Automatic annotation (TrEMBL):
Protein's name in the database: UDP-N-acetylmuramoyl-L-alanyl-D-glutamate--2,6-diaminopimelate ligase
Domain Mur ligase central, residue spans: 109-304
Organism field: Chryseobacterium camelliae
Positions annotated to bind UDP-N-acetyl-alpha-D-muramoyl-L-alanyl-D-glutamate: S30, T153, T154, S180, Q186, R188
Catalytic activity of the protein: UDP-N-acetyl-alpha-D-muramoyl-L-alanyl-D-glutamate + meso-2,6-diaminopimelate + ATP = UDP-N-acetyl-alpha-D-muramoyl-L-alanyl-gamma-D-glutamyl-meso-2,6-diaminopimelate + ADP + phosphate + H(+)
Gene transcribed to yield this protein: murE
Amino acid sequence: MVLTELLSRIPVLEIHGEQNREISGLVFDSRKAAEGTLYIAVKGTVADGHTYIASSVEKGAAAIVCEELPETLDENVTYIQVKDSSKALGHLASNFYGNPSQKLKLIGVTGTNGKTSVSTLLFDVFSNLGYDSALLSTVEIRIGEKVIPATHTTPDIITINRILAEALEDGCEFAFMEVSSHGIAQNRIEGLHFTVAGFTNLTHDHLDYHKTFDEYLKTKKRFFDGLPETAVAITNADDKNGSVMLQNTRALKKTYAMKTMADYHGKLLEVDFNGMLLNFNGKEFWTTLTGKFNVYNLLLVFGIASELGFGQDEILQAISVLKRVSGRFETFKSDGGIFFVVDYAHTPDALENILDSINDIRTKNERLITVFGCGGDRDHSKRPEMGNIATRKSTLAIITSDNPRTEDPAQIIKEIEAGVEPQNFSKYTSIPDRKEAIKMAIKFAEPRDIVLVAGKGHENYQEINGVKHHFDDKETINELWRLMSK
């Protein structure tokens, strides 16, 4: 693409050099710079891209976008000075790939919990309705039947536009995308045109990055503040922060709820481990998904699909045949009569939701054994909170390792234990080795008991000192059960 076309609608402070030149590709990592590329120097949280301008030029970059011009300018290179490189990057990426987010319907889902579930359920619902779509989630990126492994909740903006352009080329009309707080803060959704934005909930998470809850809230709100008036913003009216998301948005405002009046209202009529009987806007249906938090997830799916112009009966028909999302309240029963639940719950709110959902279903004759931990190099303040929740709401809690990353697992466990109240001291034990912790849970469980293994869900690895070791909770449970039941 010609540089002048690439710079369309981008506020430029200064340009030095030839503007009418061909650009072969966009890069913001100097190691990927090559002949004819445009290198965007972005100031990141770890490194400043401006320090790598010279090495990008050496590798053949034809043009540079930066906030500060280098002291020495190469006469064969075009330098474009902008106020904010990371924002410019978003618009450059959209322009380079032909603004695909304006040509298909892009739906963004944000919130602390439920983003993956809602995005994946939307993708599946629209498949059931007969539409090819794209999915950009924590678990995977999909374009129709094609699956691409995911590395971040919200990929970089060049990757997003490339995937959307590919989806468009493959005939997709819709794209469903998780929008993380990190992605918003780092301008990884800049330049994208959203048709619908959905909000799930806001609870304690990512305070290692955002520092305060208020900053976390404002970051999420930025997504809604930036929506055009042609978009729809749909929020959870039962969440105390739901209305905050809509305060300054120009988008059409819609709500969903179970407890209060809303555009999309849901009731939970019956629930067990096999599924739920629900009523949405006066219409009853059955789903194999279970747990109150899934009522909210499905309500948001129902609301978004309705706002995209589909009939409520056809949406509920498509919802009723949905399968559960991988690692989200996945249940299976052993031949010994023990119920196992594997879930991704790794925040205090998510853990409380899953435990409450199980306690709503069980008759209290069965015991509930919970295996969980907390990730290393992440928000420390949620650790004692999760220790408190797990020991209060379980018969037995086994505290273990999650992804310790560069931290000492014993120290993480100590911080979790700090939240356990004295009356619950007898209700927990600590086993740092996750496999041994699951083994202990199986050994302790009797027929009809419920074993919840929380925190990793769909993940098939455990990260220890920068190395990812294969570890799959479902696989481990099945393997241990086979060995122990012989």
